[in-house]
Amino acid sequence: DPSTALRGGRAMLRLGLSRQGDVDEALVDKYYPILLEAYGANLSAQTVFFDGALEAVRILRDRGDRVAICTNKPAGLAEQLMRDLQARDLFHALIGADTLPVRKPDPAPYIAAVERAGGQVARSCMIGDTLTDHSTARAVGVPSILVDFGPGDEDVHALNPDAILSHFADLPDMVVELLP
Residues with Cβ < 8 Å from 77, sequence gap 6 or more? Predict the structure, then answer.
C-alpha cells in the first residue's frame, strides 16, 4: 500500500505486524532500526526524480531563488539519497525528521530549512504532495503548492492548496505568481 509507505517505516511495520496479529509497539521499536538499515542499503535502487524536477530546481537557483528540502525522512538517509542521485549540491539546505526535536507538520523544520538555505520565511512557499506538506505550509503561514502526480492516494485538490502543480516545468512561473 503506497499510502502506508508515505507515512514512514513505523507505519509500514505496524501494517505488517497487524497482518500477523496484534501490533506490539515494542516490536515496532525493535524492528525499526533493522528496517532503516535495509532501507539505507537499497535507498536509491529504484528512485528517480519526476520529469522536469531537477531542471525546475536549476531554473530557480539560476535566478537567485533559494531551494531546500524539508522531509520527514531521517536526515542521514535523505542526505545519502540525494548524494546517490547526484543532486545534493542543487539544494542549499536539507532538514530531516530527526534534525530537530519536532517534524512536519510542525512549522519548525520548514522554518529551519528556509533559514539554513538563506531564504526569508515570509517570501517562501512549500512544494509538496501530501496533507502533511499542506498542513506545514498552513502552520507556517506560507503558500502551499501541491503536485497532483505524487505517489500518494490523497486528493490534493480537496486540500485547497494555493496552487496545483501538474508538471515541474510550470513551477518557476508558479512561484513568481505566488511570491511576486
Answer: 36, 39, 40, 43, 96
Is residue 70 helix, strand or coil?
A: strand
Q: Are 131 and 144 in contact (CB under 8 A)?
A: no
- Residue 44 C-alpha cell reads as 536509491
Give this prediction's pTM. 0.85
Q: Is 94 helix (H, G, I), strand (E, B) or coil?
A: strand
Mean pLDDT of 120-146: 97
For residues 137 and 159, what is the distance between their CA atoms, to the nearest angstrom?
12
Of 44, 93, 40, 32, the C-alpha closest to 66 is 93
Residue 13 near residue 32, CB atoms below 8 Å: yes
pLDDT at 13: 82
| DSSP result, 20-38 | HSS--HHHHHHHHHHHHHH
How far is 98 from 12, CA to CA, in rounded Å?
18
Sheet with 126-128: strands ordered across: 126-128, 144-147, 163-165
- Grid-cell match 542549499, residue found: 92
CB 14 within 8 A of CB 28: yes
